[in-house]
Write a structure and sequence with these properties.
Elements: H1 9-31, H2 49-70, E1 82-89, H3 95-113, H4 115-118, E2 120-127, E3 131-135, H5 143-151, H6 162-173, E4 186-192, H7 199-212, E5 214-219, H8 226-232, E6 241-243
Parallel strand pairs: 1-2, 1-4, 4-5, 5-6
Antiparallel strand pairs: 2-3
Helix pairs in contact: 1-2, 1-3, 3-5, 6-7
Length: 244
Amino acid sequence: MHTANGIMPTLAQVLVVCLVVVVQVVNVAKTQNTEPALDSTWAPDAASEVSKVAGPLMQAAAAAAAAAAASSSATRSCDTGFDLVLVMDSSGSLGTDGWSTEVKFVANLVSWIEIEKRDINVAAIRFSTNPVIDFDFNEYSTSALAADAIRQLPYIAESTDTGAALEVAVTMLTSVTSGRRSHLPAVVLVVTDGQTQAPARLAAAVPKIQNLAEVFVLGVGGSLHMEELHLIASNPDESHVAVV
């Protein structure tokens, strides 16, 4: 597994469990013809169908964290904190349904990880033709506030320049003014359909962001370019790429 800035594989494993759990929440809601909860009231241990899926995954995450704590080489766990950059595709190729799915997923994820309890700072970048910093690491101190802000993000619906968004993420991760805590690891979640219209720019930006952070990619939308999703994600792909 690729590591960056001292991030431990266990941290990546625990975060991807978070991603998988929320993907399962969305999938369960789809099969039941209902909308996934849009606030922090749902949780993996709730008395619902969700808990049947999430319970074993969370047990696996807890076991991984316990194993890491017992290891002499383990210097941090998921509770030691990290900085999370959300890079959200808001281009026209997603369509309004794809954008709605993306916003719901990301808001639910932020609600579920409870940033105030785990010393996680969150920043968000939305992109289409140009990237927009919606908020930096200093902006929100609770999951509820950050999730509410994400739900209010407007859909841009223009062309796609994923590389430009990753360049902004690189700047945020190397800037003191963004609120980045350089002593903690960084994690980037890119949510996209993988249809950049500037492939050379993206190819140049990928190694820069991977050198600074553990990069997860979530595929969303009706027409995914999986090769691009795998290009952006840290290795191994099977634990860093998911599809809603």
